[in-house]
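Narrative of accomplishments. A recurring question from our advisory board has been how the design workflow behaves on a single, concrete structure rather than in aggregate. To address it, we present the structure tokens for one chain from the evaluation set, followed by the sequence designed for it. No filtering or post-editing was applied between the two.
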């Protein structure tokens, strides 16, 4: 990390926050380094004695690094660059400070064409995800690894390499993707994923592959499996480990569209919201009207009127986001009916952590202010009835479905949980 970067962040934090706020992605189980981030792993013993199944991992929303390259016709402020070589667009706290966030929003936001129903990057912005095939882009979200919000899959990847003897790019692979998009805009990614799974199988003596997804990554895998032939699945897939997947949707996503998602406590929520509202992925994981529990249909309460899961059109109109309605119409049902994937499934989910079920707003401040929240059970991000929905496949497919309940774990922190690690040990060896 450059010294300049360190100073920028430090000064920013000193000025705008009282101490380090708790970020949603932050985990506190490893020793923080001197920048308040995560220390490098200590060197690990890599016993090479096991007969392991190869693994492909898939991360969730906000969960892969993104790079951008600019050659823009115009910019929103004189502080913004028109031109750049490839640089880190996500996650890069430097660009999220108040005096730069408008530039960042303009670079990461998507444009929707309501005639062709296609989304694209803003004019003059190119994006890419680094190192398809590797877990690199989602072990840490910030290239420099330091700092809040950066740590993601590293604890799980480390467990696999350090404790179980896996080798990256030999029997351990990753499928990062542009998490702004829904599966419907990801044809190329699914081609890549198919090839990755097939070559992983071939290069490991024709051993079937264990796919491990987290959060929205599972929805991508599920979408993919539904489109593959049974013969393909029988040949290549050992099992699908679904960790904390929002099968029926997530209230967290609705809250992000309505009021913004700070992601990291001190960031300017409403500015980030304007980018979130253009990303199809957030519509893709909204609560599904056809699947959401009958006794939890009331999602938003304001003094003047309430909105149920069947009233997105009215809700998005009320918040002045017609684009949200378009994106939801196109992407909300992307995974289709809740039929089983017909591969062995390890349905891993947490519960007992407060998770929003209804958002209650003060009329005047709706939707810009943070709502009061009626909580239910879940992992803080995904409601338990959504993440455990994979259990329903038990009676719907002939392949086994394993019930892996890990109560008390938060949405991201679960990836570092040793009970999960030991369970995975039994799956892959
Ligand atoms: C596209 O958006 C414009 C401007 O909001 C609107 O006037 C038009 O009716 C929309 N067209 C479709 C097909 O929705
Ligand atoms: C597909 O794979 C290629 C080669 O690894 C990579 O360069 C490209 O970024 C990937 N594209 C997507 C959308 O995954
Ligand atoms: C909205 O729902 C709440 C909670 O069920 C209820 O008390 C209130 O009367 C409803 N308000 C309107 C305007 O329907
Ligand atoms: C899954 O396991 C949990 C914890 O053991 C149990 O409470 C729950 O009833 C099980 N669910 C199903 C559908 O088997
Ligand atoms: C890991 O998960 C288990 C099962 O939910 C839980 O009992 C345990 O406290 C968790 N461990 C840590 C360190 O959070």
């Amino acid at each position: 990390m450059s010294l300049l970067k360190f100073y920028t962040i430090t000064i920013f934090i000193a000025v705008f926050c009282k101490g380090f706020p708790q970020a949603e992605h932050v985990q506190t189980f490893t020793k923080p380094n001197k920048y308040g981030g995560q220390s490098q792993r200590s060197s690990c013993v890599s016993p090479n004695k096991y007969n392991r199944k190869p693994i492909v991992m898939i991360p969730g929303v906000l969960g892969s690094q993104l790079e951008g390259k600019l050659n823009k016709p115009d910019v929103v402020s004189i502080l913004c660059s028109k031109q750049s070589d490839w640089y880190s667009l996500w996650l890069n706290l430097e660009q999220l400070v108040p005096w730069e966030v408008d530039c960042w929003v303009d670079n990461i936001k998507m444009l929707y064409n309501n005639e062709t129903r296609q989304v694209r990057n803003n004019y003059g912005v190119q994006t890419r995800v680094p190192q398809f095939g590797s877990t690199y882009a989602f072990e840490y979200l910030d290239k420099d690894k330091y700092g809040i919000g950066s740590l993601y899959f590293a604890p799980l990847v480390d467990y696999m390499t350090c404790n179980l003897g896996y080798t990256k790019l030999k029997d351990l692979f990753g499928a990062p993707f542009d998490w702004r998009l829904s599966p419907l805009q990801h044809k190329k990614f699914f081609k890549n994923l198919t090839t990755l799974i097939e070559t992983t199988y071939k290069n490991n003596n024709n051993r079937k592959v264990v796919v491990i997804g987290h959060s929205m990554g599972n929805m991508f895998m599920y979408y993919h499996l539904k489109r593959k032939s049974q013969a393909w699945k029988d040949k290549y897939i050992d099992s699908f480990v679904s960790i904390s997947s929002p099968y029926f949707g997530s209230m967290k996503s609705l809250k992000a569209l309505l009021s913004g998602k700070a992601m990291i406590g001190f960031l300017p929520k409403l500015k980030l919201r304007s980018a979130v509202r253009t990303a199809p992925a957030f519509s893709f994981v909204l609560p599904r009207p056809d699947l959401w529990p009958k006794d939890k249909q009331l999602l938003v309460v304001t003094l003047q009127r309430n909105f149920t899961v069947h009233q997105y059109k009215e809700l998005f109109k009320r918040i002045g986001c017609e684009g949200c309605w378009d994106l939801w119409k196109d992407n909300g049902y992307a995974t289709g009916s809740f039929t089983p994937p017909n591969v062995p499934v390890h349905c891993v989910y947490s519960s007992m952590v407060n998770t929003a079920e209804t958002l209650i707003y003060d009329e005047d401040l709706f939707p810009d202010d943070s709502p009061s929240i009626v909580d239910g059970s879940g992992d803080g991000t995904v409601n338990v009835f959504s993440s455990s929905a994979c259990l329903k496949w038990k009676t719907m497919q002939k392949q086994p479905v394993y019930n892996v309940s890990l109560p008390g774990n938060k949405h991201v922190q679960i990836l570092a949980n040793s009970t999960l690690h030991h369970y995975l040990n039994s799956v892959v060896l």
